[in-house]
Here is the input.
Amino acid sequence: MARILITSAIPYINGIKHLGNLVGSQLPADLFARYKRARGDEVLFLCATDEHGTPAELAAAKAGKPVADYCAEMWAVQDALGRGFRLSFDHFGRSSSPQNHRLTQHFAGRLAEAGLIREVAEKQVYSNADGRFLPDRYIEGTCPNCGYDKARGDQCENCTKQLDPTDLINPRSAISGSTDLEVRETKHLYLRQSAMRDQLRAWIDSKTDWPILTTSIARKWLDDGDGLQDRGITRDLDWGIPVKKGDQDWPGMEGKVFYVWFDAPIEYIACAAEWVEAGKGPGSEKGWERWWRTDKGAEDVRYVQFMGKDNVPFHTLSFPSTILGSGEPWKLVDYIKSFNYLNYDGGQFSTSQGRGVFMDQALEILPADYWRWWLLSHVPETSDTEFTWEAFQQDVNKDLADVLGNFVSRITKFCRSKFGETVPEGGSYGPQEAALIADLDTRLRRYEAHMDAIEIRKAAAELRAIWVAGNEYLQSAGPWTVFKEDPVRAAAITRLALNLIPFYAGLSAPFIPDAARTMAEAMGTNPTWPDSAETALAALKPGQAFTVPEVLFAKIDDATREDWAARFAGVRG
Ligand SMILES: [Zn+2]
Here is the structure.
C-alpha cells in the first residue's frame, strides 16, 4: 500500500468559482484521489480556502461585514459547493486557521535564522481618509501615456503600460475615492529567493518526469531577464497573519501581516494539522507530521499537487524556497500536474465580469456527474480548451445517455422481462464472451496506466471505450433475438452483461461517483476496483437479486441547450 498526499491549489475566498477554476485543480485532484483510494492506497487529500489579502478585505467591506465573518460565510459556501461536486477532500481547511498562523510564523523565523530574509525600506502610498497604505492596484488615476482616467497604480488597462502609482495624474484611492494621499516610508521583509536559485535549479532539473508545462514555466522564472527575484512577504494590512519570528515579536514589524502568497501554500501543511485536530479520518490519530516531515514518517509519501498554469511559479519556486530555506526536513512535492485554461463559448471565463458558468449555477441545472464527466474528459492538459453548449450536449447525450445509461437500462429491463429480477442461471460463456473479456482486460490495464500517469484525457477515452465495448457486445450477441431460439444461451449473455454493470461502476466511480453508486447498488454491491475483467465478470452469481435502476442520465434536448446558452451568455446577475 502506497501513501499518497494530494493537494489542490487553494481557491481564493472572495466568491464562487467558475467551472474553469474547478477543472484546473480541484476536480482532477479529486479524480486522482478517488482512483488511488480505490486501488487501496492510503490517501490524504487536502484543500482549503485562501483567505488573506486586500481583495478579501474589500469584498467584506462591500458586503458590509467584518472580514472574519465574511470569510467564514464564504468558506461555508465553497465547502458546500465542493461537496455538491463530490470533491472528496479529507479536509477542506482555511488559510486563516490558528494552525496556519503558527506554521507561517515558524517558517518565517527559520528563514530569518538562515539569513534568507532581508528588510527593505520602501516608499508607499498612504491614504489618510482610509487610514491605510494602499496596494498599487488600489490606487486609480489618469494614465500619463494614454489619458485613460481609470488607470491602476500597477498598470493601465487601456494601453497596458506598466505604471508606478506615482506616475498617475490625479491619483485617488480606489477604496474611498479620496485624493488625500501621501507617500510614506514603510519597511517590509523580503524572502531572498535569489540566494536559493542554484538549489532550486538543481531540484527542478532532477524532476525529469514532470510535465513540460510545469518545468518550462519554472525555468522561465528562474532564468529570464535578471533571474529569480527576491519577493516581499509582508504587507501593511490588518487582515492576515501577524508578522512574528516563530512565537517572538519581530521588532520594527509591528502591525504588519504576512503577504498572502507566503502564507497560502503553507496552508497545505497547516491543513493536515487542522485535519488531525478535527479528529477526522481513520489515519488522523497517527498525526499529521507523518505526512509532512521526512524525519517523522513522510519519507515514503508521494506528494502530488494539482494547479492551473498561473500557479506554477508559486509552487515550483516560492513555496520550495520556504521549505528548502527552513533547513528542516519538510516534504517537497514529488509531482506537479498543471493545467492550461478552459475557455467559455468563444471567450474566457471571468470571475470579475461574471462570464461563464459558476459552480452554484451548474449544480442548479444538472447533477454533478454530468459536469464531472464533461470537464474531466476535456480537461485542458496539453492546450487551452473550450466549453461550448453544443459540445456539452453532444458528449453528455452520447457518452453518458446513449452508451453507458442505455446499456444499463436495456439489459436490466430485458432481464426483468424474460428472467425476472435475478441474475439468470444456465449456459456458459463462449468464444464471444472470451474475446470481450480479453479485450476488457487489455483496456483495464491501459486505463490503470493512464490513471497512474495522471493522463486524464487518455484515461477518459479508455473508459469510454470500455463502455462502448459492452454496448457492442450486447448489440452483436443480441439476447432478445437469441432468447426465442435458445433461452439458455440468452441467459449466459444476459448474465455477462449484468456483470458488466458492477465492473463499470468500479471503473467509473472516480469520474462519476453518484452514477457509479447507483449502478453498483442496483446490483447489490458497492463500487470496487476489479482485479481483472475475468474475475469481475463472473462475480454476480446466478440467483442474485438486482433492481432496475432509475434512468442514469437524461438527454439534454435542443430547447434546453438553447435556454442555457442564452441564460449564461450575459453577465452573472
Ligand atoms: Zn494608458
User: Anything to note?
Assistant: The pocket of zinc ion is lined by residues 143, 145-146, 148, 151, 156, 158-159, 161 (CB under 6 Å). The CA atoms of residues 506 and 527 lie 4 Å apart.
